[in-house]
Amino acid sequence: MESGFRKLDILGGLRKDHQTYKVEKEGDQKIIVYSFGKKKGSIEIKENFYDNLTLQIQIKMNYLKKDEFKINYFDKGKIKIKSFLNKKEEIIYKSKPVEVFEFTEQREDKRYFKFLIRNDSDKETIKVFQGGRGFNVDWELD
To answer: How many CB atoms sit inside 10 A of residue 114's CB?
Structure first.
């Protein structure tokens, strides 16, 4: 990933989230130049990282067969390490049994993030669950 952009209006515009970043190379160094809201800065990175958009793509490509793994994640001007557990489940989706990979983020706080990827040739993300104190959101994707 060399650059990214995210702009979200949440709760009807009550909360706005705007983040951009670009990876610049200076000799042997890789530097992320970023902005998050009014905050701007740069940090040196040593390893590859992923963001909201590329995280699920990378998991589909490299982590379907792993029961647990850690991945570098860029958010709000920081590189964070996210840990996930993966298990196969059979669920009812659109009135039919479907085998899925269930990826659950391991967190120390009371928030949660989980998503389901269909175990077929398309590896389509079909559901996303997110929540925490005061909110629970479940998306069923078409």
So the answer is: 16
Q: Residue 100 contacts by C-beta under 8 Å, 6 or more apart in sequence?
A: 88, 89, 90, 91, 93, 116, 117, 118, 119, 126, 127
CB 91 within 8 A of CB 116: yes
Say if residue 6's pLDDT is above 90. no
Q: Are strands 3-10 and 15-26 parallel, antiparallel or unpaired?
A: antiparallel
Domain ranges of the chain: 3-140
Cβ atoms of residues 41 and 34 within 8 Å: yes
**71-84: pLDDT as tens digits:** 998 888 888 999 99
AA letter at 41: G
